[in-house]
Amino acid sequence: MGGIAHAFSSSWPHKPTRGSAAMKRQLLHGLLRAGAQLALALFVCSPSISAQTAEAATPKQDQATVAPQTPARSSKKSFPVHFDATPTGLVTTPTAIETTGGNLGSSGKAEQHLPDEKDSKRGEIVVAPFPISNPALGSGLVLVGGYLFPISKRDDQSPDSMLGGGSFYTSNGSWLWGAGTKLYLKQDRLRVTAFYGQGQLHYDLYGIGNSAGNLGSSVPIHQGGKALLLETLIRLKNKVFLGPRYQWRSLDAQVKGDNLPPAFNIDATELKSTTSAIGFHLQRDLRDSQFYPTMGTLTDVVGDFFQGTFGSDFSYQTYTFAFNKYSGLSPRQVLAFRVFGCATSGHVPFYDLCLLGMHNDVRGYKTGQYRDKLMLTTQAEYRLQLPKRFGVAVFFGVGEVAPDLGAFNNDNLKPGGGAGIRYTLAKKNHVNLRVDYAVGLQGGGVYMGVSEAF
To answer: pLDDT tens digits, residue range 368-384?
Structure first.
């Protein structure tokens, strides 16, 4: 659930202009992206798990095990539809991606805007509801709201600070609410993020390792929990930020069933526990746009250290690394490239393992079907703008999870690729609605989202 907080923080624009209309438009974009991430982040990162029986009439059994469920075969071919509004800058969980100063023009590049004196003295309030659809969570509604305001009228370098929150509810009973703030201080030399959230979800767990993912059997899961995140970033030099972070999570889990395969034998101590970590976040952002980058790079490194000294029931470490590169082939063509890595060590609970598909790295697989202690993915995407707000994209990626470095091999590689169409929702900032069809080794699916996959 720590990812929820950073999904929230990564959605805000770096330096919103203080003209009323422009500021409101950029805040609305940030809210839409933050709210959609609440659902995605909790689904793939939420720490507390409690089982849900497949039917209400299922008799009570031992709480330390879960019976895997294999989907019934159907005579009609079908494919899942994923709603994934992951923002352009969401490269890790957690993260706090920023964009360049100024307002973004139709080309995606920054344009300087002279703030209106009257508008700079007041904030903006925006409320934005929108639908969400996911094969694991069902269909529902997301509601997000926020307040954007300047802390100091004499500070002409810091972006406006934010207070906001959001919630969602879906047809399968999943729900979530969260609230947080992001403060920009001291001429943007200091950034402070705080977040708290609670939620419960219903989804499927496929076990741990490549063999479990290939088997395709799943356990119906009902999960709930709460999380707190605090982070401070200090500017070392232009575009480079480094700082400490703290996260706390309360976990509660119940699993029912028996005769489980080895991949589903979850340590009983992981079912109800508390995790607490102190970590670091390093970031370098040289992109020309957060919404539709056409040039530049983005580097993001996060490490979290869970220890009993900090109040955690388990001692382990998690690390993520991401590198994105964007090259403009022409005014209407962009080639994007991405490498993402995840590593864990120690007594890692199943909910903090690396999940294939978590960051749109390999589309064509259900998020979380493949999870393990290590993961490495790479992908490339070609993007072409067409007239009348339309565009197309072609992408291909490959990734793999493994229990250790020696276990990586060609047999377990998971390739995935496809194509999609784009429609520009906000022309000035070039925010696209994305509809992709991706195919993996076990089938394909439709992915819908706001903004690019990375």
So the answer is: 889 999 999 999 999 99
